[in-house]
């Protein structure tokens, strides 16, 4: 991509387009990561070469789908040209998802300004995070992402890292917001939550991907799934537990079980109701 942009710059200059274009829109699909540093530099060179001086301050990025940006780019841009910084800030303004992938040299690099005013999701990697890293990330969300409503701790292994990171992170986020370091003086669900004790979990949702492992039967899987949902709903304070089944065969197997056995439980006055709608099965306390 860098070579393509460099060739485009040379071609436009040869055609007499030096500092003559009124606009240079850039359509972006997907995400911008640390691997795009060279592309951002080349975009900056292209813009400076062909845009009119008064056009350099106009927005250029147009995100065609959900925009995702790595947090590390905020720290990286500090030593880059003002044009590169403008492009990074502009994409940050539009990003819906902010991702932490690698270690930051300065854990507070993005914690001093509202870099991500539109971001609603913050995502962390499947690895153990130190308390210092978690604290810096929590401060970043509190100060830099006023619209953030979803924190994702992705884990493809035992899930222990995700769970541990989530507990430490939410405690740190609460501290930064409630003490006024972040958005403590504002409004919204996150701020309201931060001003009180950490709430009990009352709604648990599972996403079940993939097919049945070799040797497993639908009956065994269904029993395990319902035991898991039943165990969750039995915890104090939990009012609903549900699971989305993304594999068609697994979903059809659970639906057969529901139609032949589970649906009848709703007629027997059991303490919980069991429903299945589309791809999700839900166990909920009776109200």
Helix-residue proportion: 40-55%
Tally of helical runs: 9
Classify the beta-strand content into a percent band: 15-25%
The arrangement of helices and strands along the chain is HEEHEEHHEEHEHHEHEHEE
Find the structural class using helix and strand composition.
Answer: alpha/beta
Count of distinct structural domains: 2
| Extended strand count | 11
For the biggest sheet, the summary is: 5 strands, parallel
Low-confidence stretches: 156-160, 180-190
Straight-line distance between termini:
58 Å
**Rg, Cα atoms, Å:** 24 Å
Largest sheet: spatial strand order: 2-4-5-6-7
The outline comes out as elongated
- The averaged pLDDT comes out at 77
Keywords:
alpha/beta, 11 strands, four-stranded mixed sheet, 287 residues, five-stranded parallel sheet, Ribosomal Protein S8, Chain: A, domain 1
Structure write-up:
The protein contains 9 helices and 11 strands. About 6% of the residues have low confidence. Helix 1 packs parallel to helix 2, helix 2 crosses helix 4 and helix 5 packs across helix 6. Helices cover 41% and strands 16% of the residues. Strands 2-4-5-6-7 form a 5-stranded parallel sheet. It folds into 2 domains: 200 residues, no CATH class; 81 residues, Ribosomal Protein S8, Chain: A, domain 1, CATH 3.30.1370. It is elongated, with a radius of gyration of 24 Å. The longest helix has 19 residues.
SSE diagram, text form:
Elements: H1 2-14, E1 26-28, E2 31-32, H2 37-50, E3 61-63, E4 68-70, H3 72-76, H4 82-94, E5 97-99, E6 121-124, H5 131-144, E7 150-153, H6 160-178, H7 189-194, E8 203-208, H8 218-233, E9 240-245, H9 248-265, E10 272-277, E11 280-285
Parallel strand pairs: 1-3, 2-4, 4-5, 5-6, 6-7, 8-9
Antiparallel strand pairs: 9-11, 10-11
């Amino acid at each position: 991509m860098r070579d393509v942009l460099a060739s485009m710059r040379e071609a436009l200059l040869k055609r007499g387009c030096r500092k003559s274009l009124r606009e240079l829109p850039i359509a972006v699909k997907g995400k911008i990561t640390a691997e795009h540093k060279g592309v951002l530099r080349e975009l900056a060179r292209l813009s400076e070469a062909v845009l009119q001086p008064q056009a350099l301050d106009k927005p250029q990025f147009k995100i065609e789908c959900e925009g995702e940006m790595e947090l590390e780019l905020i720290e990286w841009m500090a030593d880059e040209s003002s044009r590169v910084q403008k492009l990074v800030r502009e994409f940050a303004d539009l990003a819906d998802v902010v991702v932490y992938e690698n270690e930051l040299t300065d854990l507070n690099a993005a914690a001093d300004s509202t870099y991500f005013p539109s971001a609603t999701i913050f995502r962390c990697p499947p690895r153990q995070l130190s308390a210092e890293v978690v604290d810096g990330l929590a401060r970043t969300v509190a100060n830099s992402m006023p619209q953030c409503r979803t924190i994702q701790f992705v884990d493809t292994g035992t899930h222990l890292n995700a769970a541990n990171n989530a507990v430490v992170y939410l405690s740190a986020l609460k501290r930064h917001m409630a003490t006024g370091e972040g958005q403590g003086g504002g409004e919204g669900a996150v701020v309201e939550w931060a001003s009180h004790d950490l709430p009990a979990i009352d709604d648990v949702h599972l996403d079940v991907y993939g097919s049945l492992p070799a040797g497993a039967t639908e009956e065994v899987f269904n029993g395990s799934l319902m035991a898991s949902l039943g165990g969750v709903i039995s915890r104090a304070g939990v009012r609903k537990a549900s699971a989305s089944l993304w594999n068609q065969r697994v979903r059809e197997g659970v639906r057969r079980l529901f139609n032949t056995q589970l649906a009848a439980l709703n007629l027997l006055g059991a303490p919980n109701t069991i429903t299945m709608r589309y791809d999700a099965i839900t166990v909920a306390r009776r109200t």
